[in-house]
Write a structure and sequence with these properties.
single chain, 365 residues, alpha+beta, Ribosomal Protein S5, domain 2, Pdz3 Domain, 2 domains, 6-stranded antiparallel sheet, 28% helix
């Protein structure tokens, strides 16, 4: 048997070592690829109000988000329907990659609540919002909040002995403090299951010490304070709200994060609680974030979602208005793209393709 020349043997060993290194080297690049288009009606359950006996085909769609090794990044360049995103575009500066998953599940939790509010409002119920505190949407590393083991989805309900009902209230409390001052927070710890379900515990006391604010922190965006604060805790926050709903709605979105299913969930809740066919018996998919006012916001991965809904047999795909061009560029003949900026526009669009105006099965009280 002829032996390989020593030079070739060394070269082969080097190439093998490089390939192994590339498969283990995690980059800061992520790949977005087509996910699934899932009928929402099987995921939505309503208790406390009559629901329809017929179900329209309304689908939500998601994408797969995967952090890439160097080898995956190289090989996936030759695949179709892949969008590459740098990790810095997915997270605010200073937020660790490990927070990406919890952030997505918090966005989904918010989206479910906003979908309920928007759906009931469209059917004639007018729900009053009660401020419940301030939810943590990001924790920088390093920071006082990180050292105190504060996590995404924790809710701050108290600051130095008084209750907290809004983010700007916390900003106003922190604004006059100097670096090195101790503060006490009342915190409802969030527990996020492996599938993304969030529950909150009773408030506990958390103590931290302020530090000098980084130069990048310039303005709070709150009308009740002016200028930058000299001190800093290292958290991003959003207002928390609670509502008294006329029925209990549960939506099973296991392992799905992000806000993009908001519009589809809203349409399904409306369909469950009203008479007539909301879609005119067409197969309809939808993507788009929704807020408590029924406004539809843009989302990512629309090109890949268009591929997913097409594979699932959708006839119509409702997308945020700003995403229409992207969806049309990736749609094959037979898939009709509808752009909307609000729930009202989505319902009007469904009526134009033969859907019924939603009439609530229960008269709103």
């Amino acid at each position: 048997m002829r032996r390989l020349p020593m030079v070739l043997l060394v070269f082969a060993i080097i190439i093998g070592a490089v390939l192994v290194a590339l498969t283990k080297w995690e980059t800061n690049e992520y790949a977005i690829t087509p996910g699934d288009a899932t009928p929402v009606e099987g995921l939505v359950h309503v208790a406390g109000l009559p629901t329809t006996s017929r179900h329209d085909s309304i689908m939500l769609t998601d994408v797969y988000l995967q952090q890439l090794t160097a080898w995956q990044y190289l090989t996936m360049q030759f695949q179709r329907h892949v969008q590459f995103v740098n990790g810095d575009e997915l997270l605010e500066p200073g937020i660790p990659n490990a927070e990406l998953g919890p952030q997505g599940f918090l966005q989904m939790s918010d989206s479910k609540q906003d979908a309920e509010v928007s759906a009931f409002d469209a059917l004639g119920w007018h729900l009053r919002a009660t401020r419940s505190g301030s939810l943590v949407t990001g924790v920088e590393k390093p920071s006082p909040a990180w050292s105190a083991k504060i996590h995404v989805a924790d809710e701050i309900v108290g600051f130095d002995g008084h209750s907290v009902t809004s983010t700007c209230q916390i900003v106003a409390d922190v604004h006059p403090l100097l670096p090195g001052m101790k503060v006490a927070l009342e915190l409802r710890r969030a527990h996020i299951s492996n599938t993304g379900v969030i529950t909150w515990s009773a408030p506990v006391a958390i103590h931290l010490t302020t530090v000098k604010a980084p130069r990048s922190v310039t303005s709070s965006g709150c009308a009740n304070v002016s200028g930058a604060s000299p001190s800093w805790l290292g958290v991003s926050l959003e207002d928390g709200f609670s509502y008294q709903f006329p029925a209990r709605v549960s939506i099973d979105t296991a392992n799905i994060g992000g806000p993009s299913a908001g519009l589809a969930m809203t349409l399904c809740i409306v369909d469950e609680l009203s008479s007539g066919s909301l879609t005119g018996h067409h197969i309809v998919a939808a993507t788009g974030a929704i807020d408590q006012f029924g406004d539809v916001g843009d989302v990512g991965g629309v090109a890949e979602k268009t591929v997913a809904v097409q594979r699932a047999g959708a006839q119509y795909f409702i997308v945020p208005q700003v995403e229409v061009a992207t969806a049309k560029a990736n749609a094959a003949p037979g898939l009709h793209i509808i752009g909307v900026s609000s729930l009202k526009q989505a319902l009007e669009a469904l009526r134009r393709i033969g859907g019924a105006k939603p009439v609530p099965l229960t008269t709103p009280r």
